[in-house]
Specification:
Elements (H helix, E strand, L loop, with lengths): L1 H6 L1 H11 L15 H8 L2 E4 L3 E5 L3 E4 L2 E3 L3 E5 L4 E4 L5 H9 L23 H15 L3 E2 L3 H8 L15 H13 L30 E13 L5 E15 L4 E4 L19 E2 L3 E2 L4 H11 L5
Parallel strand pairs: 3-8, 8-11
Antiparallel strand pairs: 1-6, 2-5, 3-4, 7-12, 8-9, 9-10
Length: 297
């Protein structure tokens, strides 16, 4: 029985991918010649164990039509997050471009294996995740903002803005002043992986000078006096949450935040990404279980 299941593994994967909506190139067979190369470049991960963590909700919040800081939540994760140790590299992204699954970068890339790719949009990052999923037989996707904050750990800084004024413009100016006060004289070019060190979970370059796309949409939400949600949020998935040295928001097709599309304050130096490997879905669990099976005899 087990041997038969192993022999039909490719057929099962094709069936599974056909029903998996995020995989745009469903059913594409795994090319044997480059499979190991793709894994070496892109698949080194860190498993962050479940725990309770603090999370400042992403989006814009108001109380009685007055802008306020997002609520600070205490969240409990019941499952680990399996996330790439480093950001996706130029070499890995160029492999996707050569396969015709990703758009070429607007600026020339040297295809370096030790430098994170930058100048990519949310759409580019999503296309790469679909391509990598089809090539490896695993499910890769962008992290949600909550997952990114959870994995980033101590590298996340709570930057809630509190003012004595109810004037929204004063809050906006306070946030702009704080972000603009950061050192902008440093070299903004992407640096080799590991240049910004590792956090307590072993993730490299979190909150460095490459901001990372998440899959979370921009939301506006009204709160009551106890910071509980009032009514339904207004959700805009044309704008996504971007995380780095500070949180910001960017239009999904934007490749260079310095050209516009950032919310307030200093824009991200570079837009890149890292992915999570999804083992929580039924298809993810199925694929992992197949890989653990060994032929008898």
């Amino acid at each position: 029985m087990i041997a038969a299941l192993l022999h039909s593994k490719t057929a099962f994967l094709k069936i599974g991918f056909a029903f998996a909506v995020p995989l745009a190139v469903a059913g594409t067979p795994l090319p044997s010649q480059r499979a190991s190369e793709v894994r070496e470049i892109a698949n080194e991960t860190v498993r962050v164990p479940p725990t309770v963590f603090s999370y400042r909700a992403a989006g814009e919040f108001n109380r009685e039509r007055v802008a306020v800081s997002a609520p600070l939540l205490q969240l409990r994760r019941d499952a680990p997050v399996v996330i790439m140790k480093s950001q996706v590299t130029e070499a890995a992204f160029e492999e996707c471009v050569r396969d015709g699954a990703c758009r070429a970068l607007a600026r020339p890339s040297l295809g370096r294996p030790d430098v994170p790719v930058s100048g990519v949009s949310w759409e580019d990052a999503t296309a790469y995740a679909r391509w990598l999923s089809s090539r490896t037989g695993e499910i890769w996707r962008l992290p949600t903002d909550e997952e990114w904050v959870f994995a980033a750990g101590s590298r996340v800084k709570d930057e809630a803005v509190e003012t004595d004024s109810d004037d929204f413009s004063q809050r906006w100016l306070a946030k702009y002043d704080r972000e603009s006060a950061r050192d902008r004289t440093a070299d903004r070019r992407t640096r080799r992986i590991g240049s910004f060190g590792a956090n307590e979970h072993g993730l490299l370059d979190i909150a460095g000078n490459v901001w990372e796309w998440t899959d979370s949409c921009f939301v506006r939400q009204s709160l009551d006096a106890a910071d509980r949600a009032v009514g339904e949020p207004t959700t805009n998935c044309g704008v996504r949450v971007v995380e780095g040295a500070h949180r910001t928001y960017a239009t999904s097709f934007l490749r260079d935040a310095r050209a516009g599309g950032c919310s307030v304050g200093a824009p991200p130096d570079n837009l890149g990404f890292r992915l999570v490997r999804d083992e929580g879905s039924w298809l993810g669990r199925f694929i992992v279980s197949l890989k653990r099976l060994k032929p008898i005899g």
